[in-house]
Write a structure and sequence with these properties.
Elements (H helix, E strand, L loop, with lengths): L6 H17 L5 H8 L4 H6 L9 E7 L4 H17 L5 E3 L6 E8 L9 H10 L6 E10 L4 E8 L3 H12 L13 E6 L5 H17 L1 E6 L1 E9 L4 E9 L2
Length: 240
């Protein structure tokens, strides 16, 4: 079972994952293959990147976020895009950006009986609370994944995750312990000079790319195509 992480431990966890990217001199095609595997083969050739049809059920905040948060993320993506000008990059569409609370079914799993009903009941029973998320920069991983580093100010987001894991018995064991926002994937090699610039930008961003927002709702989604490009809203719990 994943554990709640306070800000210092969460920061440490982000850092440990980012350290893998700092240790290598560039991103090779082998490095980014896991990211490429999330996309239709023909779209990689045409460079009109289309995520694969991978069927999941999940609970997320956002999808979409408020307009100020979307604007902040768009600015972050533009700065990253500027550094990666010679590389293939997929950025999540603004209306599909989200913060994952729980995965109810991974693509290769079978959906357990009554799990969706139990999740709806759980979400409906949550108290009305203000859950603040603070973004402090971005990082990228050695497989090409790009995320914003989010922190759960009061621990409420992680508490809800832990409560759900405890109360709903058939959830997958593989769950995130982070409060990150996936914003894109690097899909081609990034050579040394460009890679150094990307590492520098990420490290600068920790202290200068800051934004806070209140989670306004949680959504239970039937996701038919990765990165929420095809989805069905099954239930929504509003907090405000």
């Amino acid at each position: 079972m994943n554990k709640m992480l306070d800000k210092n431990l969460l920061k440490q966890s982000y850092g440990e994952r980012f350290e893998e990217s700092l240790r290598i001199p560039e991103l090779s095609l082998d490095n980014v293959k896991p990211s490429r595997d999330y996309f239709e083969i023909n779209s990689l050739v045409s460079k009109q990147f289309i995520p694969k049809k991978l069927h999941t059920y999940c609970v997320v905040a956002g999808v979409p976020f408020d307009s100020d948060t979307i604007e902040f993320i768009n600015k972050c993506c533009s700065k990253i895009r500027h550094v990666l000008d010679d590389s293939d990059v997929y950025f999540v569409k603004p209306q599909n950006l989200g913060l994952e609370l729980l995965v109810i079914k991974w693509p290769n799993d079978n959906l357990q009986v009554d799990t969706l009903k139990q999740m709806k009941t759980f979400l409906a029973g949550l108290s009305n609370i203000d859950i603040q998320i603070k973004i402090e920069g971005f990082q990228f991983h050695s497989d090409g994944c790009i995320v914003l580093r989010g922190y759960d100010s009061q621990g409420d987001f992680q508490k809800i995750r832990q409560q759900a894991i405890t109360k709903i018995p058939n959830l997958p064991k593989k769950q995130s312990s982070w409060c990150h926002i996936p914003i894109g994937r690097i899909l081609s090699p990034v050579h040394h000079l460009e890679y150094c610039k990307l590492k520098d930008l990420a490290q600068i961003s920790f202290d200068s790319w800051h934004h806070s927002f209140i989670i306004q709702n949680l959504k239970l989604l039937d996701e038919r195509r990765w990165y929420q490009e095809d989805k069905i809203l099954l239930f929504q719990r509003n907090f405000n």
